[in-house]
Amino acid sequence: RPAIVWFRRDLRLRDLPALLSAAATAPRGVALFVLDDALLRPAGPRRRSYLMRCLHALDDDLSGRLVVVRGDPADAVPAVAREFDASEVHVSEDFGPYGRQRDARVAEALGDVPLVASGSPYAVSPGRIVKADGTPYKVFSAYRRAWFDHGTRPPAHTGAETVEWLDSAGVKSRVPIPEPEDVTLPPAGERAALARWREFVADGLGRYATDRDRPALDGTSRLSAHLKFGCIHPRTLLHDLRDHRGDGAATFRSELAWRDFYADVLHHRPDTARKNYNRTFDAIEYDTGPDADALFTAWCEGRTGFPIVDAGMRQLLEEGFVPNRVRMIVASFLTKDLHIPWWRGARHFMRYLADGDLASNQHNWQWTAGSGTDAAPYFRIFNPTTQGEKFDPKGDYVRRWVPELRSVVGRRVHTLPDGPPTGYPAPVVDHAHERRTALERYGRIRTTN
Ligand code: FAD
């Protein structure tokens, strides 16, 4: 009897512990992916499209043997298991709130056929590292120390040849992999992820620590969407970095620790996908009503009159990506200059980001809003103009994304001393005034709690 390998957020064949466990039980395998509308609907066209490209790439690597079906996994997975008379179903463990309850339902529906989890999308799986008293870490620096001490396993030696994949042509419920929606995206899938990683190690890693905050330089790995869908595993990256010294490699490892940390936080507190981690912040006064809605729309469309904010928001719409520094600037602007709750911004990000990931997104938003684990202190309010001048000192990033500002020379693009050029809006708010308002509101909850 064959074993099923049910792919979810692990769309690769190398370094895949679930594939290794499948091979240990049966020499023949069935590669399965379920198109689950509960996940596809909220993903937005860019992430959906990225996923479809990954599936096409995986199917190519499996010589056309990927079985793709559509429906509720609690119906679809048992149906395929029956059709192949499978002995077991192997997966990488999903720690997200939806994934956990879906897998519980699927395990029950499978009856006698075990659902076996091996590995996860993380270097160190959520829940694995706890403090001496058994409670989860709440402060990143302490978590990171424990994360380094814990270490990671060496990569699993797997590939297309690890099992003999059964032909999927005759599967009754099989559907074609949908064609990707027509959006521009970088190449997707395992080969693309590995190629990008090698390119980054050769050209980017050495200057990563300094260039990562300079959005015009594209100094980061751009692996986030690949990591999101598991086209490459962080264990592979950490293994390749083991002999690399220097600030670039150290900073990069630390960023991977943030990814694991936020997954760990969400695992222990699934409520924080929607709610403040620090419930004191429930008392923060946010703006609502038609004026706030109009400001929110201006932010979404990149028409706030703050050049670095608008550049970031337009890059999000056009590319489905924003560099980390700019994500922090636009998030701070929404919550502290426009006084709009973080979850509205987080929802917009999740709709447009190709790398949109519940744990990383919601918790980075909460870091900015001040309500997260060891969040930015409430009085740390980014000035969008000085942030622009500091991190985009020549103004190239803003000119790349805001065509109306292309004729403005150098860093003046951040201050617009001659006023906004035709077609570009005046600032929608006065930063100094909004900063005071935010400080008052945040100060109030600190004194009353
Ligand atoms: P690199 O700088 O090359 O970093 C390598 C990898 O480390 C990233 O791919 C990512 O997996 C991880 N990483 C880096 N920074 C962080 C971080 N702050 N938190 C968690 N992991 C990190 N990242 C997502 O993957 N999905 C999201 O939905 C997401 N939403 C965010 C929302 C806000 C408001 C902010 C401030 C940050 C968000 N991030 C998110 C984190 C970070 O901005 C992106 O991971 C990073 O910009 C991706 O680009 P890169 O792959 O070139 O990163």
From TrEMBL:
Class in the EC hierarchy, top level: lyase
Swiss-Prot/TrEMBL cofactor(s): FAD
UniProt cross-references to PROSITE patterns, sorted A to Z: DNA_PHOTOLYASES_1_1, PHR_CRY_ALPHA_BETA
A single GO molecular function term of this UniProt record: deoxyribodipyrimidine photo-lyase activity
Entry keyword set: Chromophore, FAD, Flavoprotein, Lyase
Amino acids binding FAD: 208, 220-224, 252, 255-262, 355-357
Ribosomal protein listed as a keyword: no
GO terms (BP aspect): nucleobase-containing compound metabolic process; response to light stimulus; response to stress
Cofactor annotation remark: Binds 1 FAD per subunit.
Domain Photolyase/cryptochrome alpha/beta: 1-123
EC number: 4.1.99.3
InterPro entries associated with the record: Crypto/Photolyase_FAD-like_sf, Crypto/Photolyase_N_sf, Cryptochr/Photolyase_FAD-bd, Cryptochrome/DNA_photolyase_1, DNA_photolyase_1_CS_C, DNA_photolyase_N, Rossmann-like_a/b/a_fold
Highest taxon, organism lineage: Bacteria
Family designation: Belongs to the DNA photolyase family.
PANTHER family reported in the protein's UniProt record: CRYPTOCHROME, CRYPTOCHROME CIRCADIAN CLOCK 5 ISOFORM X1
Name of the molecule in the record: Deoxyribodipyrimidine photo-lyase
